[in-house]
Write a structure and sequence with these properties.
globular; 2 strands; about 130 residues; single chain; two-stranded antiparallel sheet
Length: about 130
């Protein structure tokens, strides 16, 4: 991924998350960990979903996240994480941004498109679970 193009429109993507979405996202992450622990991460790997959830939480907390952290969050090797990130970038879900202090470090950020999609998913899950009660 040699090109580091930061779309200025994407810079400063929304960092104001609905507390319900944050709680649901944390539950989804915990569920993914539980499934992976009991049936194996190699059988339940969904690195794109895991990375999107992780990015959402860390951006909500105002923290930067690097490729190595995303690989760890998704329980996949760095090569798999890089390939998934490349695909997500090509589809407009994430973008890469250099650390202004250490230009060697690259952070991955969600685009506005990704935020909107994740929040639509979270809202759908909340609505479905609310109607089941």
């Amino acid at each position: 991924m040699p090109d580091i193009v930061v779309d200025p429109v994407e810079e400063g993507a929304p960092n104001r998350s609905d507390p319900r979405y944050v709680a649901l996202c944390l539950d989804l992450i915990a569920n993914r960990q539980l499934v992976g622990t009991h049936i194996g991460f190699e059988l339940s790997a969904d690195p794109v979903w895991d990375m999107l959830l992780d990015l959402y939480i860390w951006e909500h907390r105002g923290r930067d996240i690097a490729i190595s952290s995303l690989a760890s969050a998704a329980n996949v090797p760095p090569t798999t994480a890089r390939a998934s990130i490349r695909t997500m970038r090509d589809l407009g879900w994430v973008y890469r941004q250099r650390d202004p202090v250490d230009g060697r470090r690259i952070y991955i950020r969600l685009t506005k498109k990704a935020h909107a999609a994740l929040e639509a998913i979270f809202e759908g899950v909340i609505n479905r679970s609310g109607s089941a009660a």
